[in-house]
Amino acid sequence: MSELKSKSFLFKFYGWMPIILLFISVLNEFDLNYLNLKYFSFNFPFILIFFFTLKDFKHFDYLLVFIAGLINDTVVGLPLGISSLSYTLICIATSYIRNITIRPNPIKDWFYFLFIICLINSINYSILSLFFSYNLILMNFVVNIFFTFILYVVFVSIFKYYIKSLND
Amino acid sequence: MAESRDDFIIAIRSAFLKKSTKQKFSLLTLALISILIISFSSLDFKIIRYLKIGINEFVYRSSFIVSIPENFAKNSFLEIKSYTSFFDDYKKKKMELVELKSNFISNEIIQFENKELKELINDYVSSSDKILAKIIVDHESPYLKSIIINKGSKDNIRIGTPIYDQSYLVGRVIEVNYRTSRVLLLSDLNSNVPVTIAPQNIQAIVTGSGDYFGQIKYIKEKIDKEFGDKNIIYTSGTGAIFKSGVPIGKLRVKDDVFNTYYVEFFSDFSQLKYVFAEIETRSPIKKTEEDSDKIIDQNTNLTMETKLKILEDEIKIFEESNTKFKNENEKLKNEINDLNSNISNMKSEIFFQKKKIDEFDIDKDEIIFLKLNLVHGHKCRKGFLNNKGFEINTPEYRSCVLSKEINNE
Are B170 and B272 in contact (CB under 8 A)? Predict the structure, then answer.
C-alpha cells in the first residue's frame, strides 16, 4: 500500500516537473553565463513556457507562469511585471496557434517561436528604454534571441522524451 | 474572406478569454494585471514599495537556496583552477606586500591630514564603518549587472551606499530591503561615476559597458594624448555620491586611431563572494561654542595622538639607524688609527733608508776621490819641488785633485 502511495507521489512529482523546472530556472537564472562566453545567453523559461503551453500540458497553470514572471523580475532586477507580461504573451500566442492549427508541424512551431520571442523582446526593449530609461545593448537582445531559437530544438527533443515517458 | 476574418477573431478571442479546464484566470486578466503591476511599480506608492520589499526578501532568499548546487559546482571548479596558479600568486602577493608596507606610514599621515582638511571645509565630521556583506545572488543577466547582498535597511544601508571589494570600488546600492539590498555594479550600462585620471588629474566620467570593463566619457579633446597604460583611475568625489580617492581601475588604450579608452577594473566582478558596505554617519558640529570647542579639541587630540604615534615610530626608526651609524663610525675610526700607525712606521723606515742612501753616496764620492788622489795626488801635494801645492786633507787639496781630472777630460 505504502509502495503504491510513494509511487503515486513520484508520479505526481514527475508530472509537476516542468513547472518546478520553470521556478528553479527563474530563481537560478539558468543560462550558462558562468562559462564566460562573450554575449552568450539564452532564455530557458521562454522555451519551456512555449513548449508546454503549446502542448496544453495539464499541470502548466497560467497563474504559476505569471508568478514565475514576477520572481524573474525580482531576481534579474527588472521592473516588476515585465517578465509576467512576456510569459503571458507567450501563453496567448501558443493558445492562438493551438486554435488555428489542425495538423501540428514542428518546423512551423519553431519559426513561430522565433517570431514570438522577437516580438516579446522588442516589447521588453521598448518598455525598458522608453518608460524606465534603461540603457540597454540591442546586440545582447539579438544574441539572446538567436541562441534561444537555436537551443529550442535541443530542449524540445528532451521535453518530447519527457512527455512520452509520462504517457507510458 | 469574411469567413477567414471570423476564424481569426474567434481564435484570438478564444486565446485571450477561454480558460482551459484547470486554469483559474484567463490570459487577458493576467496580461492586464501585468500591465497594472508595471505601471504601479513605476510609481512610488508606499504600499507597493513595502510589497516589493516583501517579495524581494522572499525571492532573494529562495534564489540563494536554489542556487546552492550550481554555486557549489562553480566554486569547486574555480578552486581547482586557482590551485594551479597558487605559487605564482603567492610570489606576486609577497612582492605587493613589501611595496604596501613601505607606503603604509606615509599613507597614514596623508589620511589624517586629509581628515583635518575635510573637517575644516565641512561643518560635519563624517565617520564611516565598513561592514562585511555576503553576496547571496549574483546571477548575471545579459542586460543588467547587479548583485544582491545580505545587508539591508536593518544594517543602516541606504540607497547610494558605496560597496567595496577590499579597498576597490565595485558599485553602489540602488535598492534597499529590510535584510537585503541590490548593488549596481560599475560595469552596468546605467552606472556613471565621476573620476579623476592620475597623474594628470583630469576629470572624467566612467560608465559601464555592460561587459567587464568601463568606458571613459566626457573628457576634453586633445588631453587624452597624454594618456598611457600607467594612468590610474580613482573617484573624484564630485557630486558627493562617492568619497574621493577610492581606486577603481587602470586606464587601457582600446583604439589608437579614435583615441578610445577603457577602464580595467581592479576588482573582478565575476569572482565576488564578500563585499564591504561603507556606512557613513554624519555628526554635525553643535553650534554652541563650548561644545564645538570640545569636539574640535577631541578631534585634534585624536589626530594629534595618532600623529604623535606615527612620529614616535619614525623617531624609533631614526634612533635605530643612528646607533647603526655610530657603530660604523667607531669601526672606521679604529681602522683610520691602524692606518695612521702603519703610515708612521713606513715613514720611519723611509727615513732610515734615505739615510743609508746618503751614506752610500758619501762613500761613493770618497772612493772616486781616493782613485783620483792616486793618479793626481802628487800634482797637488805640497813638496820640495811643488811650492804651489796644498797640504793633504785640506779642502783645497781635495778640490785640486778633482779639478785635475776635469781638466784631463
Answer: yes
pLDDT in tens, B234-267: 888 877 778 888 888 888 876 665 667 788 888 8
Measure the CA–CA gap between B246 and B174, rounded to whole angstroms.
Answer: 19
- What are the angstrom distances between the C-alpha of B220 and each of A126, B194, B215, B264? 33, 14, 15, 21
Q: Considering the domain boundaries, does residue A38 fall inside one?
A: no
The ipTM assigned to this model is 0.82
Nearest in space to B168 (alpha carbons), one of B327, B275, B55, B320: B275
User: Is residue A6 in some structural domain?
Assistant: no
Judgement on whether residues B277 and B369 belong to the same structural domain of the protein: no
* Cell (9 digits) for B33: 494585471
Average pLDDT, chain B: 79
Residue B181 pairs in a beta bridge with B149, B176
Note down the domain range covering B138: 125-284
Residue of chain B with shortest Cα separation from A88:
B31
Domain boundary among B222, B250, B284: B284
Chain B residue with Cα closest to A62: B23
The structure's pTM equals: 0.61
Radius of gyration of chain B (CA): 48
Across B159-172, b (16+ Cβ under 10 Å) vs e yields: eebbbbbeebbbbb
Q: How far is CA B124 from CA A116, B121, B297, B377, in A?
A: 57, 9, 14, 119
Backbone angles phi, psi at B190, to 5 degrees: -90, 0
Instruction: Look at residue A158 in the predicted model and tell me its pLDDT.
Output: 92
Among B284, B314, B347, the domain boundary falls at B284
**Residue B142 touches chain A, beta carbons under 8 Å:** yes
- Residue in B8, B27, B66 nearest the CB of A27: B66
Half-sphere exposure (Cβ direction) of B100: Cα atoms closer than 13 Å:
6
Tens of pLDDT, residue by residue over B153-194, are 888 888 888 899 878 888 999 888 888 899 999 888 888 888
CA distance A38 to chain B (A): 9
Interface membership of B268 toward A (CB under 8 Å):
no
Contact of A49 with A30, CB cutoff 8 Å: no
Q: Which of A85, A131, A134 sits opposite B31 (nearest CB)?
A: A85
pLDDT of amino acid B291 = 58
Task: Report how far residue A96's alpha carbon sits from residue A119's, in angstroms, rounded to the nearest whole number.
Answer: 15
Residue A4 lies in a domain: no
Instruction: Report residue B62 as a C-alpha cell.
Output: 529562495
- Paired with B232 in beta bridges are B198, B250
What pairs with residue A136 in β-bridges? Answer: none
Interior/surface letters A90-99, b for 16+ CB within 10 angstroms, e for the rest: bbbbbbbbbb
Q: What is the dihedral of CA A141, A143, A144, A145, to 10 degrees?
A: 90
* B241: DSSP letter: S
- The domain tally of chain B equals 2
Q: What does the block give as the cell for A66?
A: 505569471
